[in-house]
Amino acid sequence: MKIWAHRGCSLMYPENTLLAFEKAAELKGLTGIELDIQLTKDGYLAVCHDEKVDRTTDGRGMLRDFTLAELKELKIDAGEGRVERIPTMEEVLDLLEPRLREGLQINIELKNSMLPYEGMEEKIIGLIRERGLQEHIVYSSFSALSLEKVRRLEPGARIGMLDGKISDCLYKLKGGCGADDLHPSMYGIDLPPEKFAGFRVRAWGGGRLYPEKPTGNRLDLAALERKGITDVFLNEPEAYCVGE
Ligand code: G3P
Ligand code: MG
User: pLDDT for 77-127, tens place per residue?
Assistant: First the structure.
């Protein structure tokens, strides 16, 4: 089973922050880091899960209504007096590029199923290309239209189709978005493995943060593997990366 850090090491550190990514990058045996991107009012790629900044920062309102400078004013309490800020995608790449060159991957989830974020595909693909990091990136989205655009702009991109159920991921593929991999919830494996043989199946926590509290490495990864899951996005990857 391949282990990914979901929004970084997001159980112990604030999700989608440089701190959470730095902790994930230190893990031996980690396959990759998942993160979520959106666009600021002035068109910068910001790494944040919710469309609103309310849950994760001391601010209020929609992320798209903030300029980057305004967004950078918002504070994320990281405990022990440490304050984090919503990072830009450039800042994340500055931090992780050396680890990417060593084989770590990033799954960039385009957060555009609620708000379309016109031009986000062009921006992220341009940035990744500029840095020559194409082979280290997996793109994903709940929007098949967005993934179709990613495929058009970057024919060689690795692309994962997100949805709750694996049957719905497969259904969306029929529209021709050209995704390579399936990204269902780990509770949404509603087909036997032979129905999706040959796909990588990277599974996430089903609408909950997963795990929600420290498990001390007690998730039954072998059982998930028997269902056909090849990779899992975990908030507590540090409990499952035994190192290599
Ligand atoms: O990409 C896997 C997972 O992150 C999808 O759901 O809501 O956590 O972004 P969400
Ligand atoms: Mg995500």
Answer: 999 999 999 999 999 999 999 999 999 999 999 999 999 999 999 999 999
Tell me: the pLDDT tens digits for 215-229? 767 788 999 999 999
Q: Which residues are catalytic?
A: 6, 49
Top mutation candidate among 16, 31, 35, 36 for ligand 1, by most atoms within 8 Å of CB: 36
SS (H, E, C) 45-73: EEECCCCECCCCCCCCCEHHHCCHHHHCC
Binding pocket residue ranges, ligand 1, CB within 6 Å: 6, 34, 36, 49, 109, 140, 162, 183, 204, 233
Tokens at 70, concatenated: 């305004």
Pocket test for ligand 1, best of 162, 202, 209, 231 (most atoms within 8 A of CB): 162
Residues 64, 92 contacting (CB under 8 angstroms): no
Task: Judge if pTM exceeds 0.85.
Answer: yes
